[in-house]
Amino acid sequence: MKILLAEDQAMVRGALSALLSLCGQYQVTEAKDGEQALQLLKNDSFDLLLSDIEMPGRTGIELAQWVAENQPKIKVVIVTTFSRAGYIKRAIECGVGGFLLKDAPSEELVAAINSVLNGRRVIDPELAMMAIGDKDPLNDKERRSLRLAAEGKSTADIATSLFIAEGTVRNYLSEAINKLNASNRIDAARIAQQKGWL
């Protein structure tokens, strides 16, 4: 079974890769961020994507959305340190097969991967209950603009990154600020991040 492991923290990535390799049934390819993972997904074939959520370039959820749209046969398991309702809900909505916290025991991770590869869904019941919480008001364009704003990028930089006009960026950020009842783009990004919507 070929697994693509996307994790930006080198120590965590190395530990997960070593754990999976010890099982003897997985061939693991490592990606240091979301962009590298996307290139590997486009250029190679995998049975499963095991991904962190918060990574530079693309998030684990954005990778899961890409997989759902372009290579639906690939199974996806998300591992994260954040048990935010927004993350869990978005992961479930884009068809993620497993959602685990990084502090789960290693045997639980291996069991979850095997279950997902066999067509079952593995989401901690407590996390699944959290997903029923707040509804994410942001659309994808607002979310991407807000994420780049949270990284300190200017309106011009965001426009360049997203290949859209500066006025369009201002509209997306303004909509996000209004939807989140925030005072400015930084406040909106903070609220969205706390909820797991970024």
Automatic annotation (TrEMBL):
DNA-binding among keywords: yes
Residue numbers bearing the 4-aspartylphosphate modification: 52
What is the name of the protein in this document?
DNA-binding response regulator
Record keywords: DNA-binding, Phosphoprotein
Domain HTH luxR-type, residue spans? 131-196
Instruction: List, alphabetically, the SUPFAM superfamilies matched.
Output: C-terminal effector domain of the bipartite response regulators, CheY-like
Q: Which GO biological process annotations does it have?
A: phosphorelay signal transduction system; regulation of DNA-templated transcription
Starting at the broadest rank, the lineage of the source organism is: Bacteria, Pseudomonadati, Pseudomonadota, Gammaproteobacteria, Alteromonadales
Response regulatory domain: residues covered: 2-117
The answer to whether the entry has keyword DNA-binding is yes
GO terms of molecular function: DNA binding
